[in-house]
Write a structure and sequence with these properties.
The protein contains no helices and 15 strands. It is mainly β and about 140 residues long. It has one domain (about 5-120). Strands 3, 4, 5, 6, 7, 8, 9, 10, 11, 12, 13, 14 and 15 form a 13-stranded parallel beta sheet that branches. It has a two-stranded antiparallel ribbon with strand order 1-2. A hairpin with a 6-residue loop joins strand 1 (about 5-10) and strand 2. The chain is globular, with a radius of gyration of 15 Å. The relative contact order is 0.12.
Amino acid sequence: MGIFKKDIDVISPDTAEPINRDTVIGCGTAIEGIISSKENVCVEGMFKGKILSEAAVIIGETGRVEADIKADTVLMSGEVQGNIVAKTRLEITSHGKLKGNIKTRSLVIAEGVLFEGNCQMACDEPDGEPGTQPGNRTTDGKIV
């Protein structure tokens, strides 16, 4: 599997339709930097940096990510170390491991997931970073 290979084998939990994997970081590939995409992003290899997508971000079972992720939808089966802001939905399958904070409208966590962090369920637009809504304390203890 290469870096920009297209496959259709991930099923949307909302529509039961296949999700196009428009940009793929394949197993055995390691990348560091910032990904900014209007399309779906799939990580099967290793990525370090920041991921911004107007569509879905898919972390496959072999995916290892050290990054903050901001996307419409995040489907996670691999490992993520970083904060996740998912505008519509975050789903973590039983193989998923997350060390970081979550901000989303809809959250599905399967049995067996390892999750270490805080979760903020956002009724309004979850645009900001997790833990920075008015009245919340930031990591340095200040009230925002």
